[in-house]
Each structure stands twice: as structure tokens, then as C-alpha cells.
Amino acid sequence: RRWVFPGLARPRWGVCRKRSAPKKLLESFIMTEPKISKRILVTGGSGLVGRAIEKVVADETGRRDEVWIFLSSKDGDLTDAGQTKALFEKLQPTHVIHLAAMVGGLFRNIKYNLDFWRKNIQINDNVLQTAYEFGVQKVVSCLSTCIFPDKTTYPIDETMIHNGPPHDSNFGYSYAKRMIDVQNRAYFAQYGCRFTAVIPTNVFGPHDNFNIEDGHVLPGLIHKVYLAKKKWHTVDSLGDRKAPEAVHILSGSGSALPLGLEGVRRSGTHHLICRRRR
After folding, report:
1. Are 103 and 142 in contact (CB under 8 A)?
2. Residues with Cβ within 8 Å of residue 16, at least 6 apart in sequence
3. Residues 173, 175, 187, 226: which is the catalytic one?
């Protein structure tokens, strides 16, 4: 678990190896800084998007009333309701950025569609229900472009999510992610919860999964090119370059989700669109 205190002189974050470390670090911070008004819990904080957010938060200076807590799967099993509640009880978040998920590339999805459905449904239900029970002020969940219908028109936006089935190759993961949109609307309708979600473009970058078998297309291709370069081999990439696909490298774009905690006022799902640089 990593705790980030934006605006402090470096080092700005510490890896807490003992139970007393977070408490002592937090106490010393409160004594010298303004009162903490937000405790932001990031599930899946050790992954691609989580690490990008951590870098953005650590580099910013305008978040001195916030404590950011980045969780990994080592801190607890979010498919287990009891462990999820224990984490919320211990950390007492006021806001949550929900990134945790069982993820994988094309071949892994094809092989384990049921596992992707069941585990992600369990994770999402536990996080959202526990956030409601603990009175979390806002939850921003991260979805995926794969939730859009396989047969659709372009450009696409968030109003088109449920207009048809997703691609057969990863229907388990896709439907599980779609259900976050349904849950968010239901929590708002029944309890008035400010739970929302964002759909980023396809992203890659540092801390991605570069496994050729289990990773996504671009990280796997980067790995193949790396291996080919070491052996002075060539790499063939199939395609006609006409696919209407948006891919974005995650660097400064990690700021989109923290902004979602402040800028998005209504419940529902929102499509993050990256403008092309010319």
C-alpha cells in the first residue's frame, strides 16, 4: 500500500511496511499541514492507470488537503466482501477511484470468459456496496472501450454502451464492466449516491503488462519488437491501418481520473476523448 501526500517536500510518498508507519506519517503530516479533507482510495493502484495517477498526484502541489492511498491485490482480495469491508474500515476513504479488475489480453479473455465475468462482477459489487455502506462521497470507476457494441457506428459515445452485444472474444469482461454503469444508475436512483464511471480510450504505457500471451495488442507488439531488435530480426504486423481505433499513451493523461472526482457532478458514465495532436 502506498500513501501519497501531495505538496510535501520530497520524498512525497512512502511504502508502509509496518502497521504503525501510516499512522505516524499521517500524524506528522496533519501537525504541519492544513486539515485533511479528502482521503482518496485508489483500487488497483499498482497497475497501468494507477501508477499514472500516482505520478500525477505526486507531481502536483495544489492537493495539500488530500491523502491518496494506492492499493494493490497484495493488500486484500476485493472479490471477498469481508476483506473489502475490512479495508474500508481501516482506511476510511471519503472518495474512491475504482481501477481494480481481472484483466488480460485477447487470448486470455477467449479462454477464461466466465472467470472474467465472475471475478469482475464480485470486485465491482463489493467495492460499490461497501462504498455506499461507509458513506463514501464519490466513486469514479474506470471502464473500457471493449464494452461498446461490436456492431456500431462511429464516432461512439457513452449513450451507445447498451445498444448491442460486445465482441464475442471478451464478452465476460465486457458485460461485467457494463454492469458498473447499471449499478451506478441504480445506486443514484435508490440512494442518491454520486457514483460515476469514465471510459478511456485504449491506453498503454509504463507499468503495462508486456506479456506476449496475456497482454494487450500494443504492449505485446512492443515486447515482440524488443526481442526482434535484440536478435536483429524483422517483425510483421498485420492490418490495413484503417481501423477506427484510438490509442493513447498514459503519461500526463493520468490526471483525467483525479479531475473526475471534482469535475463530474452527475451520476452515469462519461467517455474520455483524447484530441489528436497534429
Report:
1. no
2. 1, 2, 3, 22, 25
3. 173
**Run of H or E residues at 14:** strand 13-15
Three cell numbers, residue 167: 465482441
Other C-beta atoms lying within 10 Å of the C-beta of residue 14: 13
175 is catalytic: no
User: 3-class SS at 70?
Assistant: strand
| Per-residue confidence in pLDDT tens, the chain, 278 aa | 666 555 443 333 434 444 455 555 555 544 555 567 899 999 998 888 888 888 888 877 666 788 999 999 999 999 999 999 999 999 999 999 999 999 888 888 899 999 999 999 999 999 999 999 999 999 999 998 888 899 988 888 888 899 999 999 999 999 999 999 999 999 999 999 999 998 876 665 665 665 666 655 565 666 556 666 777 777 676 666 555 554 444 444 445 555 555 655 555 666 554 444 44
As a whole number of angstroms, the distance between CA 162 and CA 216 comes to 24
User: For residue 194, what are the contacts with CB-CB under 8 A and spacing of at least 6?
Assistant: 137, 138, 139, 188, 265, 267
Backbone torsions φ then ψ of 133, nearest 5 degrees: -65, -30
Question: Which stretches does DSSP call E strand in 120-165?
Answer: 138-142
Of 267, 194, 274, 254, nearest in space to 42 by CA: 254
Contact 101, 121 (CB under 8 A): no
182's CB contacts (< 8 A; 6+ apart) are none
End-to-end CA distance of the chain: 39
H or E element, residue 231: helix 217-231
Task: Examine residue 149 and say whether the peptide bond preceding it is cis (omega within 30 degrees of 0).
Answer: no
